[in-house]
Specification:
Helix content: 25-40%
Radius of gyration: 27 Å
Number of strands: 28
Number of domains: 3
Shape: globular
Amino acid sequence: MKTEAELRSALLSVDKRPYPAYKSLGGSWRFSSYILTIDHVQGDPFASPSHLTAHIDLKTAGFPSEYLSNKERRTALADYLLRRFYSHLKKHSFDAKGSGKSGLLNVTRPGQEILQRTACEISEREISVRFFVGFPAAGRTILARELEKILFSTLPPCIEQAFLLRNIPGKEVEDVLFLADDQAFLRAELKKLDLVAFIGDGSVLPRESGVSDRPMKGALPFTSPESLAVSFSLPSGRKLRGMGIKRGITLIAGGGYHGKSTVLKALERGVYDHIRGDGREYVITDDTALKLRAEDGRKITDTDISIFIHNLPNKTDTSHFSTLDASGSTSQAANIAEALEAGCKLLLIDEDTSATNFMIRDKLMQKVISGDKEPITPFIERALQLYEEAGVSTVIVVGSSGAYFYPAHRIIQMDEYRPVDITESVKALIEKEADKAPSLYAPDFHMPDTERGFRFLSEKTHASSSSPKFSRGRSDNRMKLKLRGDSAFSLGDIELDLRYLEQLADSEQTAAVARILRYALENMKGSRLSRKGVIDTILKKLDKEGFSFLFEGSYTASGLAMPRKAEIFACFLRV
């Protein structure tokens, strides 16, 4: 392997030459404490910056094997090291001079969630960090001396300060690993104790603002009602008390602006682990949980919504329902059916973002519009059946209708951001008004069919001459992929907007979902697997190989984060 001295020599040899001469620097170069790989050189200083990777041997990094003893620890440590590298790198971005993006230094900036990312990965032998550098030029004339400053003066201390254990405060690393252990322990305990979620006492649930995911300063810390309190002795040695939410139907009620949706939002993001200081480190939710809402205008692909929608006037077969423009009720029905297909065991619903006619029909409406004229079976008539027949629990935020008090197993009132267990008092009240109870069970309950295949993977789907060509071997035959903001992308002729998949926490997850969809379209055409089988096959491949199989060029692997199975399903079924 070539040395850093040879890189310096090669770099200076292209000084003042036209910009394409930078491409001669591609390849791997050994520095004293890491190997630097120049994966891709940008076409000119105004193009997207160049892609580089630093490979740090684990022995050089100095991390003992117990720091990397399981997946949770490796993911948490990689996340922490990436945050350190970002903080060092951003101080020197554009120190070097030149045109366009000359001197730019950048790497993925993680949010509050701890995600498995391609930007920083820890294998059995090394730490790999992928980042971006704007190679300097004056116009399109190479400024080799400016790049020399970046590669030989700026980058080495940034990498060594971020990734070598001797330069990292030992307590910080221990805190990261102990928190990862605690969070993994709590997730395992949820299943043992028949809980679907847990919110630790002292958690700070409100966020700084609508555009900031950081904790709100001065917010009231969460404290569990005694009747719902659960206590744990954590692996870190800490004793933790908090509110446990058992399986079944749980209502979060209360007046406006008292914190109902704030709690639901925290539970929604509790499917991910959070960094220390976020306030939600000990908000742990069943990792299959799915936040559901009405999604007018979404596409639905061959989904069985017949347990909620049936007997449509136009005789549409709702056991194989497809549409390019769903209504509020059909979209919410499809979202639930797809959640069940993806293996979801907890539904999170806010009445504010739900279709009213899908959620409830009161007795007067039932008298006015007879059942044979109403194709919608409201969710209130299926909620108990979903729990009793399919083991699917629900947490619902309510503020305007008391109908859901009747099927609820527990009711939590948010009172100025304080949770109060009002289950017994409400149950006593509704016993006196039993004659006003809504219908809680609808006939003919059945689970949606989950064994059908993807129509877009059939041999006939792309038969026209204008359709995309599929090939594994040639990049010019691949479907063109373009990301559009944080939650949308185009893939060939397909346009997808995933903004209503509210548990996609990061734009890099959206990018990963897009790559997974392209892989399925290009490589699994004609598959006889069920929809679940297709996605399970891809997830097993991701777990075994990482993201590498989604790419032909390694340099493009720098911007992905692991999505959940539920969001992959939801994306596929909007095609």
